[in-house]
Design brief:
DNA-binding, Rossmann fold, homodimer, about 40% helix, alpha/beta, elongated
DNA sequence: ATGAAAGCGCTAACAC
DNA sequence: GTGTTAGCGCTTTCAT
């Protein structure tokens, strides 16, 4: 039977939930002071092994769970991490969120998620909530930085991580995605299949990250000696609707490309939809390549060939960067930039261009990488 | 300039983050006691309006944010809600999560998410974390209940919400989804288009919820006088792979149905993939209907007609149920069962059956509901 | 090595 | 109506 607890401060289960056992209950049960219990729990090496055993035994018997709130209150560290995304409905994010959570919890942190939805009132309240909950650091994973948010966050000086770009301030970490390499892989995959007329649907060019991706595409094409005519360069919005509209423009123009590379997967999916409405077939008549490798990509018909920006490495880097900022003597406390690699994933939305020899022979193209889906 | 703070307990910004202003700073600035500040902040009506104004002014000037941890510690309520899902990668969940979060935060709660991944060690640690953080209640949104989890949770007696079914215990709330009505709408939509040969791909029949859905299908078919032959009833697994396999079995059998109704969207998407590999076309040759209306559904080619189980109402009901359990004098404190409605969403994976008059005339079928995507 | 006690920031009971 | 004060559960000096 569990010892009945009775001292002035904690009148057993009266106003609290049953099961809410405090450090005092453990102390009493083990016949030691609460300080010793605290030390044992926190594995302070100086506690007498014998006492420690007694404490752990007592903990087990009364079913004690340290109260995180109280801990946070005194230690000043909540072990709470904020994760801000632009919109969680955007199919790119759930995976990021998942990875981030897995890693965070494995390292003893909890995650508070928030999406700004590009709404400044929302962002405002989100910030307040994170601050009130005393988060130890915040990862801002909104590609395309939202200005007020940044300012708000930077005022309070605490660990912060951004993607791609961010103000070069103390305690601000930046995740640098290697767009160039991933997009080069995409271009070379298409070129290897025999494509020369490769169009590019970009993201909204007033944002930095889409511009970088477009640059990377043009450079990769130049590298292999292909000139891209202006009519094969269209601007999208990084949404499915934008992809549809952009693809339709491409379809209307005279010189139809045999392949289309897209600045992100949602755009590529839009392109797929636009093509689906015509007599053309993907990949027989036109190949499509995306960027991101969102979960959705593998479910498309046909499954989408795309450049994977690894959520896992994005999340891992974000957390490591945050911890580097939070923990004073973290090994990488000085590092401010964190590289993120990208990698093509070949599925079935790419094939030989129409009219090419292998295509006429109706053979399956050789696939450099094994399809994932 | 902000008043410099100096009293024995809070030596200004020494070991805490700058920006970490406490109630004492506000009190000093406003020339009142901390109790008055607390009252003003909590909008206790008895505070002198004049003093309240001074307090709010001071709060504004020093940039005070009440510390949630401290609040939780004394009030015994964390304003934290746990949300447990089986796997957040399952495309159904991100939307649920989002809705849940939106509603929770709008009502002053924060959400801690966890996915069990059907892994009991994970579930164990998840539970410990939730308990340590002192969540006020937990919503268990794993269709197909996981036994240990339930037991663990039920031991501690605090507000709990399940979907479909759960132990009939005090403080346990259940969200009852109205599968019958949704599936009837699906069946009637197909019947109205002229389909008679409608197959059904169920979920794993050892689980309760899939069984209920299958029952609902059979009943709806009986209602309109159609007998379903056994060969048109196949079992899937509520995954894409299961959907592919089940559809392939249907395709191999002699009597090809003109429409397939699926127990969930992932199954329907699998069916779409299986059909895509054949010369048959959706919806010209065969119509497909899903269930859930996950985000993905509208992105399929063709966009999937499906029965929507509203995430919004699911989330809303979960939160209301939780609050009813948490707050002693909530208006619906007694309610234990919460109905969730369903609703067909017609997109483009359904059409007249092949060979029917309207199909031969190549006319677009009339659409009872406006497509969403 | 251990215990007593202060105090993290806040709310609520109690006094005035 | 307002201030004083005792804790919420814990960590961390500071004595011992």
């Amino acid at each position: 039977m569990i010892a009945s607890v009775s001292h002035s401060r904690n009148q057993s289960s009266e106003r609290k939930r049953p099961g809410s056992v405090s450090i005092r209950d453990v102390a009493q049960r083990a016949g030691v002071s609460i300080a010793t219990v605290s030390r044992a729990v926190n594995r302070i090496p100086t506690v007498d092994p014998e006492l420690a055993r007694r404490v752990w035994k007592a903990i087990d018997e009364v079913g004690y769970l340290p109260n995180t709130q109280a801990r946070a209150l005194v230690s000043g560290r909540s072990h709470l991490l904020g994760l801000i995304v632009s919109e969680i409905t955007n199919p790119f994010f759930p995976e990021l969120v998942q990875e981030f959570e897995n890693l965070a919890t494995a390292q003893g942190y909890e995650v508070l998620i928030g999406s700004t939805n590009y709404d400044s009132a929302r962002t405002e309240s989100l910030m307040r909530r994170l601050l009130q909950r005393n988060v130890d650091g915040v990862a801002v994973m909104t590609f395309g930085v939202e200005e007020d948010l940044v300012k708000k966050l930077v005022e309070r000086e605490f660990p912060l991580v951004f993607v791609d770009a961010g103000p070069g301030l103390p305690n601000i970490h930046v995740l640098k995605v290697d767009y160039a390499e991933g997009i080069r892989q995409g271009v070379q995959h298409l070129a290897a299949l025999g494509h020369r007329k490769i169009a590019f649907i970009s993201g909204p060019l007033e944002q930095r990250s889409p511009r970088v991706r477009r640059e990377a595409f043009l450079r990769a094409m130049t590298e292999i000696g292909i000139h891209v005519p202006a009519e094969h360069l269209v601007e999208g919005t990084h949404t499915m609707e934008g992809g549809i509209a952009a693809m339709e423009r491409l379809l209307e123009r005279g010189d139809l490309p045999t392949a289309v590379m897209c600045s992100n997967d949602m755009t590529a999916i839009g392109a797929l939809h636009a093509i689906y409405r015509t007599p053309l077939k993907v990949p027989q008549d036109i190949s499509v390549v995306g960027f991101d490798d969102i979960h959705l990509a593998q479910f498309m018909l046909p499954p989408l060939t795309t450049v994977q920006m690894s959520c896992k490495s994005l999340a891992a880097a974000a957390i490591e960067a945050l911890r580097a900022g939070i923990e004073p003597d973290h090994p990488k406390a000085k590092q401010k930039e964190w590289p993120i690699s990208t990698q093509i994933v070949v599925r079935q939305s790419t094939a030989f261009p129409p009219g090419s020899l292998p295509a006429r022979m109706n053979k399956e193209p050789a696939r450099p990488t094994k399809p994932r889906a």
